[in-house]
Amino acid sequence: MKKNIAIIMGGYSSEVEISLQSGNVVYNSLDKEKYNLFKVLILRDKWVYVDENNIEHPINIQDFTTTVNESNIKFECIFNAIHGHPGEDGTILAYLELLGLKHTSAPFYQMAVTFNKRDTLSFVKPYGIKVANSYYINKGDIFDINKILNKVGLPCFVKPNHGGSSFGISKVHTLEELIPAIEKAFKEDNEILVEEFLDGIEVSVGIIQYQNKIKVLPTTEIVSENEFFDFEAKYLGKSQEITPARITQIQRKNVKKAAEKIYRSLNLSGLSRADFIIVGDIPFFIEMNMVPGITSESILPKQAQAAGISLKELFGNSIEIALKN
Q1: Stated pTM of the model
Q2: Where are the domains of the chain?
């Protein structure tokens, strides 16, 4: 008998449109001969299953079921395609776990930790993972600009502590640019970090569970036409994403080792993507993406393809692992 699989998408953050694209890629890629697939929109004003005729059926938040033609539909597994809050930060996963529902992401605690950039960096440093110097600011804090720049230098990056798709991030070249950049980041989050600029090769590494083993996918080199790998570069074609990356064997070995160590040390599961800057032969960890983009422009699907894994296999494998757990 075919399993009922809900693909949740949308969310409450600036990444809602990207999430809808990702969710539709999952829906269109999965084997409909094997699964009954349901698109479920999780939005601030409604939780609904949207059928093939674009008719909306409310989700009962008491048990995460829906009713169609007076028939109650239960889901065996939830495929999480929500970037940002409440999917990538673990909020909705805690709810699903309370209901006893299986899902394709890591457990809610791991999701919450990895969604918090400063906590993730603090967690991995004792494991020997190199990270950039950074300075943390909470909204309402009194801070000294000169003290910040003495620690991180110029140029530097200002970014929201939570969130993705480069919303709210600025590259700062002068002291005068710092305050506007901080104000921009605070529009996205109440916590921000100011991070040292690392002059090196930007790469991204997919780490997944595949056939019950941890698999590190081929490394992608990112060459942005813009100042950094911002929203335009990620989604509007303003970058080259080269897989496999044009790096040396020792660089490839080091970044693969670091990516797998982070995945294991954080006790992660599901799909993920770790971002690094390689300086010399040393990879410096930037952040972990636990609901990585899976649109046609996204990195992880291209890495999977380079490893000989189709999207149908990639997403189906995630569901099968979740069902077995």
Answers
A1: 0.89
A2: 3-105, 113-130+199-324, 133-196
